[in-house]
Amino acid sequence: MSLNENIYELQNEYDKMNNCDVILNDNSYKCELKKLKKQFENFKVELINKDESLKQIKEEIVELNNNINSLKKEIEDGNYKLYNKSGANLKVIDIINNKLDNDKKMLVELDSKIIDMLEREEKIQEERKSLREKLVNIKEEFYNYKEKESKKINEANTDKKLIEKKISNIRGSIPKRYLDIFDEIKSRNKKAAVKLKDRVCEGCKIQVSAFTIDNINKDNEITFCDNCGRILFSDKRLENK
Ligand SMILES: [Zn+2]
Questions:
Q1: Percent of the chain, pLDDT > 90?
Q2: Which residues contact 159 (CB under 8 A, 6 or more apart)?
Q3: Which of 74, 86, 126, 166 gives 92 a disulfide partner, CB atoms 3.0 to 4.6 angstroms apart?
Q4: 209-212: which pairs have CB atoms within 8 A and are 24 or more residues apart?
Q5: Which helix (H) or strand (E) holds 193?
Protein backbone atom coordinates (compact mmCIF):
# COMPACT_ATOMS: atom_id res chain seq x y z
CA MET A 1 0.00 0.00 0.00
CA SER A 2 1.18 3.50 -0.79
CA LEU A 3 1.67 6.11 1.91
CA ASN A 4 -1.57 7.84 0.91
CA GLU A 5 -3.50 4.60 0.96
CA ASN A 6 -2.10 3.79 4.39
CA ILE A 7 -3.05 7.17 5.77
CA TYR A 8 -6.57 6.92 4.36
CA GLU A 9 -6.90 3.37 5.70
CA LEU A 10 -5.74 4.60 9.11
CA GLN A 11 -8.47 7.23 9.06
CA ASN A 12 -11.04 4.56 8.13
CA GLU A 13 -10.02 2.44 11.09
CA TYR A 14 -10.33 5.43 13.42
CA ASP A 15 -13.82 6.03 12.00
CA LYS A 16 -14.76 2.42 12.72
CA MET A 17 -13.34 2.74 16.22
CA ASN A 18 -15.45 5.83 16.69
CA ASN A 19 -18.58 3.87 15.72
CA CYS A 20 -17.70 1.21 18.32
CA ASP A 21 -17.25 3.90 20.97
CA VAL A 22 -20.65 5.37 20.13
CA ILE A 23 -22.23 1.95 20.82
CA LEU A 24 -20.16 1.39 23.96
CA ASN A 25 -20.90 4.83 25.40
CA ASP A 26 -24.60 4.71 24.58
CA ASN A 27 -26.50 4.98 27.86
CA SER A 28 -29.95 4.43 26.34
CA TYR A 29 -29.45 0.67 26.82
CA LYS A 30 -29.36 0.93 30.59
CA CYS A 31 -32.16 3.53 30.60
CA GLU A 32 -34.42 1.29 28.52
CA LEU A 33 -33.77 -1.71 30.79
CA LYS A 34 -34.49 0.44 33.84
CA LYS A 35 -37.71 1.66 32.24
CA LEU A 36 -38.89 -1.89 31.49
CA LYS A 37 -37.98 -3.00 34.99
CA LYS A 38 -39.94 -0.12 36.50
CA GLN A 39 -42.97 -0.97 34.34
CA PHE A 40 -42.70 -4.56 35.46
CA GLU A 41 -42.59 -3.55 39.12
CA ASN A 42 -45.61 -1.26 38.69
CA PHE A 43 -47.69 -3.98 37.09
CA LYS A 44 -46.63 -6.35 39.83
CA VAL A 45 -47.86 -3.93 42.50
CA GLU A 46 -51.14 -3.58 40.59
CA LEU A 47 -51.46 -7.36 40.47
CA ILE A 48 -50.91 -7.63 44.21
CA ASN A 49 -53.60 -4.98 44.75
CA LYS A 50 -56.02 -6.91 42.54
CA ASP A 51 -55.33 -10.07 44.54
CA GLU A 52 -56.02 -8.17 47.73
CA SER A 53 -59.33 -6.82 46.34
CA LEU A 54 -60.31 -10.30 45.21
CA LYS A 55 -59.61 -11.70 48.65
CA GLN A 56 -61.76 -8.99 50.25
CA ILE A 57 -64.63 -9.55 47.81
CA LYS A 58 -64.54 -13.29 48.45
CA GLU A 59 -64.74 -12.67 52.18
CA GLU A 60 -67.62 -10.24 51.69
CA ILE A 61 -69.44 -12.77 49.52
CA VAL A 62 -69.07 -15.44 52.22
CA GLU A 63 -70.42 -13.01 54.80
CA LEU A 64 -73.33 -12.00 52.56
CA ASN A 65 -74.16 -15.66 51.97
CA ASN A 66 -74.20 -16.26 55.73
CA ASN A 67 -76.52 -13.29 56.19
CA ILE A 68 -78.79 -14.51 53.41
CA ASN A 69 -78.95 -17.97 54.92
CA SER A 70 -79.82 -16.72 58.40
CA LEU A 71 -82.41 -14.34 56.91
CA LYS A 72 -84.00 -17.24 55.02
CA LYS A 73 -84.10 -19.14 58.27
CA GLU A 74 -85.83 -16.20 59.99
CA ILE A 75 -88.40 -16.04 57.21
CA GLU A 76 -89.00 -19.77 57.54
CA ASP A 77 -89.40 -19.37 61.31
CA GLY A 78 -91.71 -16.41 60.81
CA ASN A 79 -93.91 -18.38 58.43
CA TYR A 80 -94.00 -21.30 60.86
CA LYS A 81 -95.00 -19.04 63.74
CA LEU A 82 -97.62 -17.34 61.59
CA TYR A 83 -99.41 -20.57 60.74
CA ASN A 84 -98.77 -22.62 63.86
CA LYS A 85 -98.24 -20.44 66.89
CA SER A 86 -100.03 -17.12 66.50
CA GLY A 87 -103.51 -18.54 66.89
CA ALA A 88 -106.11 -15.79 66.44
CA ASN A 89 -104.12 -13.02 68.12
CA LEU A 90 -104.26 -10.23 65.51
CA LYS A 91 -101.59 -8.20 67.26
CA VAL A 92 -99.13 -11.09 67.16
CA ILE A 93 -100.05 -11.83 63.51
CA ASP A 94 -99.37 -8.18 62.66
CA ILE A 95 -95.99 -8.17 64.34
CA ILE A 96 -94.95 -11.40 62.58
CA ASN A 97 -96.21 -10.12 59.21
CA ASN A 98 -94.29 -6.86 59.60
CA LYS A 99 -91.11 -8.70 60.45
CA LEU A 100 -91.65 -11.03 57.49
CA ASP A 101 -92.11 -8.08 55.14
CA ASN A 102 -88.92 -6.46 56.40
CA ASP A 103 -86.97 -9.70 56.20
CA LYS A 104 -88.14 -10.30 52.61
CA LYS A 105 -87.19 -6.75 51.61
CA MET A 106 -83.78 -7.22 53.16
CA LEU A 107 -83.37 -10.55 51.37
CA VAL A 108 -84.00 -8.86 48.00
CA GLU A 109 -81.41 -6.21 48.90
CA LEU A 110 -78.84 -8.81 49.93
CA ASP A 111 -79.48 -10.82 46.76
CA SER A 112 -78.85 -7.80 44.56
CA LYS A 113 -75.77 -6.94 46.62
CA ILE A 114 -74.36 -10.42 46.08
CA ILE A 115 -74.96 -10.15 42.33
CA ASP A 116 -73.03 -6.84 42.32
CA MET A 117 -70.23 -8.52 44.24
CA LEU A 118 -70.05 -11.43 41.80
CA GLU A 119 -69.93 -9.01 38.87
CA ARG A 120 -67.14 -7.06 40.54
CA GLU A 121 -65.27 -10.25 41.21
CA GLU A 122 -65.51 -11.25 37.55
CA LYS A 123 -64.32 -7.82 36.40
CA ILE A 124 -61.30 -7.93 38.71
CA GLN A 125 -60.51 -11.47 37.57
CA GLU A 126 -60.39 -10.20 33.98
CA GLU A 127 -58.19 -7.24 34.90
CA ARG A 128 -55.93 -9.60 36.76
CA LYS A 129 -55.65 -11.84 33.72
CA SER A 130 -54.69 -8.93 31.46
CA LEU A 131 -52.14 -7.73 34.04
CA ARG A 132 -50.57 -11.17 34.13
CA GLU A 133 -50.29 -11.15 30.35
CA LYS A 134 -48.68 -7.71 30.47
CA LEU A 135 -46.17 -8.94 33.04
CA VAL A 136 -45.24 -11.92 30.89
CA ASN A 137 -44.84 -9.68 27.83
CA ILE A 138 -42.66 -7.13 29.61
CA LYS A 139 -40.48 -9.87 31.04
CA GLU A 140 -40.01 -11.27 27.55
CA GLU A 141 -39.34 -7.81 26.12
CA PHE A 142 -36.79 -7.14 28.86
CA TYR A 143 -34.80 -10.32 28.17
CA ASN A 144 -35.00 -9.99 24.39
CA TYR A 145 -33.80 -6.41 24.53
CA LYS A 146 -31.05 -7.28 26.99
CA GLU A 147 -29.85 -10.14 24.82
CA LYS A 148 -29.89 -8.06 21.64
CA GLU A 149 -28.07 -5.13 23.24
CA SER A 150 -25.47 -7.24 25.04
CA LYS A 151 -24.73 -8.93 21.74
CA LYS A 152 -24.23 -5.51 20.14
CA ILE A 153 -21.94 -4.40 23.00
CA ASN A 154 -19.93 -7.62 22.90
CA GLU A 155 -19.50 -7.26 19.15
CA ALA A 156 -18.36 -3.66 19.54
CA ASN A 157 -15.82 -4.73 22.17
CA THR A 158 -14.46 -7.50 19.95
CA ASP A 159 -14.39 -5.19 16.92
CA LYS A 160 -12.60 -2.53 18.92
CA LYS A 161 -9.81 -4.90 19.86
CA LEU A 162 -9.33 -5.91 16.22
CA ILE A 163 -9.42 -2.30 15.09
CA GLU A 164 -6.83 -1.31 17.71
CA LYS A 165 -4.55 -4.04 16.39
CA LYS A 166 -5.10 -2.91 12.81
CA ILE A 167 -4.43 0.72 13.72
CA SER A 168 -1.20 -0.22 15.40
CA ASN A 169 -0.19 -2.24 12.31
CA ILE A 170 -0.97 0.59 9.91
CA ARG A 171 0.78 3.12 12.11
CA GLY A 172 3.81 0.83 12.03
CA SER A 173 3.98 1.17 8.27
CA ILE A 174 3.72 4.99 8.17
CA PRO A 175 6.87 7.07 8.77
CA LYS A 176 6.78 8.97 12.07
CA ARG A 177 6.89 12.46 10.52
CA TYR A 178 3.65 11.72 8.63
CA LEU A 179 2.05 10.16 11.70
CA ASP A 180 2.84 13.32 13.63
CA ILE A 181 1.14 15.40 10.98
CA PHE A 182 -1.86 13.04 10.92
CA ASP A 183 -2.20 13.07 14.72
CA GLU A 184 -1.85 16.82 14.85
CA ILE A 185 -4.67 17.36 12.32
CA LYS A 186 -6.75 14.66 14.03
CA SER A 187 -6.44 16.45 17.35
CA ARG A 188 -8.29 19.38 15.77
CA ASN A 189 -10.70 17.56 13.44
CA LYS A 190 -12.67 14.36 13.75
CA LYS A 191 -11.21 13.31 10.41
CA ALA A 192 -7.59 14.00 9.54
CA ALA A 193 -7.70 12.36 6.12
CA VAL A 194 -10.58 12.74 3.67
CA LYS A 195 -11.38 11.77 0.10
CA LEU A 196 -11.23 14.20 -2.76
CA LYS A 197 -14.36 13.73 -4.82
CA ASP A 198 -14.84 15.60 -8.12
CA ARG A 199 -12.05 17.91 -6.98
CA VAL A 200 -14.04 18.78 -3.85
CA CYS A 201 -12.63 18.08 -0.37
CA GLU A 202 -15.06 15.82 1.54
CA GLY A 203 -14.00 17.46 4.78
CA CYS A 204 -14.85 21.10 4.04
CA LYS A 205 -16.84 20.59 0.80
CA ILE A 206 -14.73 23.18 -1.04
CA GLN A 207 -13.07 22.70 -4.43
CA VAL A 208 -9.31 22.48 -4.26
CA SER A 209 -6.83 24.28 -6.51
CA ALA A 210 -5.22 22.94 -9.68
CA PHE A 211 -1.90 22.96 -7.83
CA THR A 212 -3.29 20.61 -5.20
CA ILE A 213 -4.65 18.27 -7.86
CA ASP A 214 -1.24 18.24 -9.49
CA ASN A 215 0.26 17.28 -6.19
CA ILE A 216 -2.19 14.44 -5.68
CA ASN A 217 -1.48 13.07 -9.13
CA LYS A 218 2.19 12.77 -8.27
CA ASP A 219 1.18 10.45 -5.40
CA ASN A 220 4.57 10.57 -3.82
CA GLU A 221 3.83 12.66 -0.79
CA ILE A 222 0.82 13.65 1.23
CA THR A 223 -1.31 16.52 -0.01
CA PHE A 224 -3.34 18.93 2.10
CA CYS A 225 -6.63 20.64 1.35
CA ASP A 226 -6.01 24.31 0.45
CA ASN A 227 -8.91 25.31 2.62
CA CYS A 228 -9.17 23.12 5.75
CA GLY A 229 -5.70 21.59 5.86
CA ARG A 230 -6.87 17.98 6.03
CA ILE A 231 -4.87 15.28 4.24
CA LEU A 232 -6.47 14.53 0.88
CA PHE A 233 -6.79 11.10 -0.66
CA SER A 234 -7.78 10.09 -4.15
CA ASP A 235 -7.78 6.55 -5.48
CA LYS A 236 -7.61 7.65 -9.11
CA ARG A 237 -5.62 10.17 -11.09
CA LEU A 238 -7.45 13.39 -11.62
CA GLU A 239 -7.72 15.46 -14.70
CA ASN A 240 -6.02 18.78 -14.11
CA LYS A 241 -8.22 21.38 -15.71
ZN1 LIG B 1 -10.92 20.71 2.98
A1: 83
A2: 16, 20
A3: 86
A4: 210/240, 210/241
A5: strand 193-197
Longest dimension (CA), the chain: 135
Other beta carbons within 10 angstroms of residue 233's beta carbon come to 21
The CA–CA distances, whole Å, from 198 to 8, 98, 217, 229 equal: 17, 107, 14, 18
Dihedral through CA 124, CA 126, CA 129, CA 133, nearest 10? -120
What is d(CA 190, CA 103) in angstroms, rounded to the nearest whole number? 89
- For residue 41, give the DSSP letter: H
Question: What pLDDT was estimated at residue 229?
Answer: 95
Query: Which pLDDT value is given to residue 241?
Result: 44
| C-alpha 208 to ligand 1 mean position (Å) | 8
Q: 239 C-alpha to center of ligand 1: Å?
A: 19
pLDDT for 216 equals 87
| β-sheet bridge partners, residue 200 | 197, 207
5 C-beta neighbours (distance < 10 Å), count: 13
Q: Calculate how far, in angstroms, residue 236's C-alpha sits from the geometric centre of ligand 1.
A: 18
